[in-house]
Amino acid sequence: MISILNWIALLTALATSIGLLLHQNWRWGVGLLAVQYVSVFWLVQTHWPVSMAAVKLVTGWMACVILGMASMNTETAGGIEASWPQGRLFRIFTGGIIVAASFAISLRASSWLGLGLPLTWGSLLLIGMGLLQLGITARPIRVIFGLLTALAGFEILYAAVESSILVAALLSVVNLGLALTGAYFMNLTQEEEP
Amino acid sequence: MSAPILWIFLPLLLAVLLFIPRNQKIVALVGSIFAFLLTLAAWLIPMDTVLSLANWSFKITSSFDLLGRHLILTSADRSLLALIYGSSFFWFVSSPATRARRRFVPLGLAITALLVAALAVEPFLYAALLIEMAVLISIPLLSTPGGRPGKGLIRFLIFQTLAMPFILFSGWLLAGLDANPGDLGLLQPAAVLIALGFSFLLAIFPFYSWIPMLAEESSPYAVSFILWMFSTVTIFFGLGFLDRYTWLRDAPSLGIILTSAGILMVVTGGLLAAFQRHIGRIMGYSIIMENGFSLLAISLGLGSGLSIFYMLFIPRVLSLMLWALALTILKDNYSTLDLNKLKGLSRTWPFATSGVVLANLALAGIPLLADFPSHLAVWEGVAAKSLPAVSWVLVGCVGLFTSALRTIYFFITVPEGTRWSSHETIPQRILIVLGVVILLLLGLFPQWTLLLWTKLPAIFTHLGQ
Q1: Cβ-defined contact of B67 to A165 (cutoff 8 Å)
Q2: Cβ contact (<8 Å) for B165 and A170?
Q3: pLDDT digits (tens, 9 = 90+) for B192-205
Q4: Residue A85 in 3-state DSSP?
Q5: Residues B122, B67: contact at Cβ < 8 Å?
Q6: At CB < 8 Å, which residues of chain B contact A?
Q7: Do A188 and B169 touch (CB under 8 A)?
Q8: What was the pLDDT predicted at B145?
């Protein structure tokens, strides 16, 4: 049963990360990121106590709230990416490559690290999708989505090898800091110099 | 009281409090005095020793426990603390002479404290997380108010953030190696992850594209402060790895990797600087070159090479400060640092333009200026190992020198009939003249910096002893 739930968490991570890549609307982005953190929570709790893994979920959702509120105030999200390539087909294609590559790598990595395939694949998939997002966008909110996705992937893998409370706390601070940076970027045009 | 409270938590607390006053001069004054006192304390007060002052005796302990982990600053770290807080002091004290933002001092103090915490934390891999926090805090300092975040700023955030996972994960592998020294299978992935982590963190070739972009978009004053602080702490953090792990220190490929990366950074930085028409970008490329020089100095061997590496610091910080100050004065008044739009300024802004040119020449390693003795030591060391290598390094230096000549050309192309005048304020003139005089004096008497750089090797247990 647990194993099936791990696979469901992996599929959720897959769906949300591809969704994040395809949707340009910030509302979709924030919503998908929030769902992504549920899958991160599930994969992390396979190695951490539920109470500690819940930190990832709460932090992730707090980051989503910060980004959502900032986007709501500025309403600058949306519109078309200025850089090439912009097409949905291209994103699906590159996303597919990341899915395939992360699967191929995770087959070896899971045995090397001694972790289950869903956990390793989920982690590498999120890292790959986050990096892909960073590579094809210059818009601040999407950059923050990409960084949070890549970090979430790393945190899944790192949770399996490190269970320090201080690390968990500092990583949460970093996640929240990234969300606040995103909010700051979005409000930058309205800022006034003293 | 413990040393981490004095050099980490108190500055963080003061940084928060300094957001309250609205007067920039008061903020700068308080921040500068505090940074100066911390520098003085680092220079004079030994840790873990009972000190008596009249009828009052006290001891500064070296360790502070936090959630089961430790922040440790020993007496051996005092020279590094003095270097870090001393350079912060110079940046803070000059900030009122520019139109630096009010939050420059509080944010700068918080960044300095977090970076000191990064050097003090045990296990030392937690440093990656603290450096990332300092990166996040530095974003408001580097952003331009009223505009969209530039590409350089976004790349800075991305690259510095990506460094953190690599370093944390390499730490896990290194812990595995500590537990099973015979497990050679972990060596290669650990080395690759460390190399990638530091390439992002220190902006090593080819991950340095954001530096000139950032130097073009943001305030030169803030950029130079951030780049100096981050590169200094990152290099010491990296040396901490070499100090701890014998296999890494003794790796035969270490010297080759450091030399290649250093040469690439010096050559590409210098050559690209020669073709720039934006003085901010030229400063950015010179910072890349300086990081390259640091790598080259370390590659010369962990004994004499490190001595040269320590020699680089004081002239570098002074040259960078002067350059940044002069550029900020020009940018405050012309809102651009494009050379085409700064033609003929030598007659109306003689102090600022002289500061720009002299700092540029100093970092290019021109004789009689502060950076020449340390650069000469690097050239000699590299030449002793490989003549083609030193030729490439000199090509890079010629590139930066060419950029200085081009800057001079633009500054002195004065329209007929322009009269001599000076638009700089008196504090600006005083600061620039002081900077120029110090650059010249350190060029003539490089031994004056001996006091600091001979104490720096004590930080490490195995390196340079």
Answers
A1: yes
A2: no
A3: 899 999 999 999 98
A4: coil
A5: no
A6: 22, 24, 66-69, 101-102, 126, 129-130, 132-133, 136, 139-140, 143-149, 151, 154, 157-158, 161-162, 164-165, 168-169, 172
A7: no
A8: 73
Tokens of residue B357, six digits = 């040119």
Do the Cβ atoms of A170 and B67 come within 8 Å? no
The mean pLDDT value of chain B amounts to 90
Report residue A20 as tokens: 């994040």
Of B102, B149, B158, which is closest to A185 when you measure between CB atoms? B149
Q: How far apart are CA A190 and CA B146, in angstroms?
A: 6
pLDDT per position as a tens digit, B104-156: 999 999 999 999 999 999 887 789 999 999 999 999 999 877 778 889 999 99
Beta carbons within 8 Å of B412's beta carbon, 6+ residues apart: B344, B346
Per-domain residue ranges of chain B: 1-122, 123-459
Q: Directed axis angle between helix A26-44 and helix A50-74, to 10°?
A: 170
Q: Which residues pair with B64 in a beta bridge?
A: B71
Contacts of B352 (CB under 8 A, 6+ apart): B326, B327, B329, B330, B345, B424, B428, B432
Residue A80 has pLDDT above 60, yes or no: no
Contact B427, B95 (CB under 8 A): no
Condensed to tens digits (0 to 9), the pLDDT of residues B253-265 reads: 888 999 999 999 9
The Cα–Cα gap between B269 and B287 comes to: 8
Which of A140, A174, A193 minimises the CB distance to B101?
Answer: A193
Q: Residue B254, exposed/middle/buried by CB under 10 A (0-12, 13-18, 19+)?
A: middle
Structure tokens at B412: 């002195």
pLDDT average, residue stretch A74-93: 68
The crossing angle, in degrees rounded to 10, of helices B104-120 and B220-244 is: 0
CA angle B49, B55, B57 (to 5 degrees): 20
Q: How far apart are CA A60 and CA B443, in angstroms?
A: 53
Residues of chain B positioned with their CB less than 8 A from the CB of A134: 158
For residues B9 and A139, give the distance between their C-alpha atoms in angstroms, rounded to a whole number. Answer: 35
Q: Give dist(CA B74, CA B48) in Å, integer.
A: 8
Angle at B83 between CA B376 and CA A173, to 5 degrees: 120
CA distance A53 to A43: 9
Tokens 């902006």, residue?
Answer: B203
C-alpha distance from B5 to closest chain A C-alpha (Å):
18
Tell me the sheet residues that pair with B59: B50
**Nearest-CA residue of chain A relative to B68?**
A166
Candidates B148, B169, B193, B335: best to mutate against A (most CBs of A within 10 A) is B148
User: Rounded CA gap, B100 and B110, in Å?
Assistant: 16
